[in-house]
Design brief:
191 residues, two-stranded antiparallel sheet, 6 helices, 51% helix, globular
Length: 191
């Protein structure tokens, strides 16, 4: 199955592999095969520029990318609230898994996705959050899920990578350095 935004139905739809959409006639892009998903997590379908300078962008995103943008939207809100409300957390609280897990409604997920997407656009304008960096964040989140005991170390390594990139270092070098550090952290944790 492959997904696309159908201009006729005006929402994302799934179509059988190697078949065209029954409504709009769109055919499966060459880059939407299962083996290519990691290479192309975002597929822009349409961009409509408006007179006021805004634009409407229609795209297909794979699930990990949607998750990244929702998480980034939540982080963006937290960061903004800490700045505007001058919130300081003195001592970390311990929460149960149930209290840390919240099932989002579609409206809540859409709002967080919107904020995450806006952040990604702004960051992209500064040269940040390239495809490589998004994939690195996803890999960091996967490692945290497997090794929650070293979450802080993984997040620190990721923050160092982003900081170096913001300071003008080459993205490829910093990404390589992050993966090297991540491998060392995991090996040290296993022993």
């Amino acid at each position: 199955m492959w997904s696309h935004y159908c201009k006729v139905e005006k929402h994302s739809m799934y179509v059988e592999d190697d078949k065209e959409c029954n409504w709009c006639g769109k055919t499966q892009p060459y880059n939407q095969g299962e083996d290519m998903k990691e290479e192309c997590p975002i597929s822009i379908n349409d961009v409509v520029d408006h007179e006021d300078g805004s634009a409407t962008i229609t795209m297909d995103l794979d699930e990990p990318t949607q998750g990244i943008l929702i998480k980034q939207g939540l982080q963006y809100l937290i960061d903004e609230m800490r700045v505007t409300d001058k919130i300081k957390v003195l001592d970390p609280n311990e929460f149960s898994k149930e209290n840390k897990t919240h099932k989002l409604t579609n409206d809540e997920a859409n709002a967080l996705f919107h904020f995450g997407f806006l952040y990604a656009i702004k960051a992209g304008m500064k040269g940040l959050e390239t495809k490589d960096e998004c994939l690195v964040r996803a890999d960091a989140d996967d490692a945290i899920a497997k090794y929650p005991q070293i979450k802080e170390n993984i997040n620190d390594a990721y923050a160092v990578m982003i900081g170096e990139i913001e300071n003008g270092k080459f993205v490829d070098n910093e990404v390589d350095q992050f993966y090297s550090t991540l491998s060392k952290l995991i090996e040290e944790h296993k022993t």
